[in-house]
Design brief:
Layout: E1 18-19, H1 36-39, E2 49-52, E3 57-60, H2 67-88, H3 92-104, H4 110-119, H5 125-147, H6 151-166, H7 174-191, H8 194-208, H9 215-226
Antiparallel strand pairs: 1-2, 2-3
Helix pairs in contact: 2-3, 3-5, 4-5, 5-6, 6-7, 7-8, 8-9
Length: 231
């Protein structure tokens, strides 16, 4: 082999199942994969992640952008794929760890995630708590995705979120909390429930108000509250 060149034998077996993919946003709707960045949870540039051969996200690279950093990230990919193999071979403990990681990576919508959770047979109390929270976040994302941009469907999602809030089932992720409160606010405003709208604004402020990314949204909600019910 020539100096500096690599052959297939130089790569670990798991790395051969990992797909390199560069997403370039063009904003041209007829381009393939145009919405993939958002579908995989990308929120800003640059976002670096590992995908498996089926295009599913298996690792987000958050470390240094160096050879060592990428080697460490790829090592985490190897551990995850190894756990998947163990789970597929009947390891109940690995199956729980795999589902937790898959939910963190947003592999499934809510009904599928819930069915997979119910199929687990070996779950510790710590894992149960983590799974319960991940399922709540998954439930919120699924309702947001289903509602799309339809105002009536969004208000219906907001009504569902109010029921979740009443049951003390709140999402943990910031993007999930953002949609949780804003769609619930739309529901409250449409229902003419100023008291509920005020509570939502307070909850939004408490959970997201310290984050500058959401300050403008909070200001907008407070403005809507100030003019609530006026023509």
């Amino acid at each position: 082999m020539e100096s500096g060149s690599l052959s297939d034998n130089d790569f670990p077996a798991f790395a051969k199942n990992v797909v390199p993919f560069l997403h370039v946003t063009t904003r041209l709707e007829d381009k393939p994969y145009e919405k993939l960045f958002g579908e995989l949870g990308g929120t800003g540039f640059p976002t670096l992640m590992w995908l498996d051969a089926d295009g599913r996200k298996i690792q987000v690279h958050n470390g240094p952008r160096s050879v060592k950093g990428f080697e460490e990230s790829l090592g985490e990919v190897e551990l995850f794929l190894d756990q998947i193999e163990k789970a597929e071979n009947g390891d109940a403990k690995a199956a729980t760890a795999v589902l937790i990681r898959q939910l963190q990576l947003q592999w499934f919508e809510y009904d599928d995630a819930l069915a997979r959770r119910e199929a687990l047979t070996k779950v510790s109390s710590k894992e149960k708590k983590e799974l319960d929270q991940l399922l709540i976040d998954t439930e919120v994302r699924t309702h947001v995705k289903t509602a799309g941009k339809d105002p009536e469907a969004q208000r219906a999602a907001g009504a569902h979120f109010f029921a979740m809030w009443s049951e003390k089932r709140l999402p943990a992720g910031k993007s999930e909390l953002y949609r949780f409160w804003t769609l619930m606010a739309d529901h409250a405003e449409h229902a003419g429930d100023k008291k509920l709208f005020r509570r939502i604004v307070g909850a939004f402020d408490q959970s997201l108000g310290s984050d500058s990314r959401y300050r403008a949204v909070l200001d907008e909600l407070e403005g809507r509250l100030a003019h609530f019910g006026r023509e």
